[in-house]
Amino acid sequence: MDVRTARSRTRQGTRRAGHGLPRLRITRGLNAREEGQEMTALKARGVRRTFEAELAPVRALRGVDLDVARGEFVALMGPSGCGKSTLLNIFAGLDQADEGEVFVDELQVHDRDENWLAKFRRHHVGIVFQFFNLLEGVSALDNIALPAILGGMRRKAAETRARDLLDLLGLGDRTEEVPSVLSGGQRQRLAIARALVNEPAVLLADEPTGALDSEGGVEILELFRRLHGDGQTILMVTHSADVASGASRVVRMRDGRIIGDDDDGQGNNDDGRAAGVDVMADAPAQTS
Ligand SMILES: Nc1ncnc2c1ncn2[C@@H]1O[C@H](COP(=O)(O)OP(=O)(O)OP(=O)(O)O)[C@@H](O)[C@H]1O
């Protein structure tokens, strides 16, 4: 079963009461790519963000312009503190730009209130964090089903979708387990399943392999490549050039600005050397 099958099996369940936002599905990304159209999944224009700090304000983003087309898998790299997470959080609706314009799947995300952003986060983006952020003491199934139920899906449909995703991500036999008994790689797969449950237009991942050993890192990167192969748009922050090399495009930041952008997937760190664990050492070139 692929992502599309899982999605269509529960299509009925994903129709929910009006939440004030137009419903966008990741199949749009697939269709756009299949039809050869360039549709923008992420767009930033002149984005600035400054944080107040004790000594002096921190200018985390100093005018960022970025376009990510639907269906792209983009790795965002750069030295610590250059603004990667800040940019990802702004696309995720977890933070707001002080200046500039932000669009996700052609929805305006800048200048929105928290109520709107909460709905936006639930329905339009899937967010994956370095340290999983799962509900401890809650089964794997419920970790996935609960956000779908909060998103308006009926429990039965949400559980069906959760089971489909767990099967899809190789956790079909762990539905009743709580996160603490799972390995790091399994927890991150669970977090990715949760991020996918509401069929987000974009998957936003902040160092998803950062807390994993090399085997776990390979597993997650393979999964992202599989999802990308299925049409999922992905923006992933990473410090590892090896992880970035699994993406279809590498964007580099420094000091709150984008300083490099390529689409050859051959990300190097700022010294021009391969960095981090060699997570691709044993990985097949293409898994989807
Ligand atoms: N809520 C905040 N309050 C104050 N300063 C912040 C806040 N969030 C981020 N910063 C600062 O903004 C700058 C950019 O932070 P950001 O987390 O985006 O960098 P990063 O490139 O993701 O770093 P890392 O790779 O270490 O995670 C840093 O100097 C950071 O300390």
UniProtKB/TrEMBL annotation:
Keyword Cell membrane: no
Comp. bias (Basic residues): 1-18
A GO term from the CC aspect: membrane protein complex
InterPro entries: AAA+_ATPase, ABC_transporter-like_ATP-bd, ABC_transporter-like_CS, ABC_transpr_LolD-like, MacB-like_ATP-bd, P-loop_NTPase
Domain (ABC transporter): residue spans on this chain: 42-280
Keywords carried by this UniProt record: ATP-binding, Nucleotide-binding, Transport
Gene Ontology terms, MF aspect: ATP binding; ATP hydrolysis activity; transmembrane transporter activity
Region Disordered, annotated ranges: 1-20, 257-288
Name of the protein in its database record: ABC transporter ATP-binding protein
Native organism taxonomy: Bacteria, Bacillati, Actinomycetota, Actinomycetes, Jiangellales
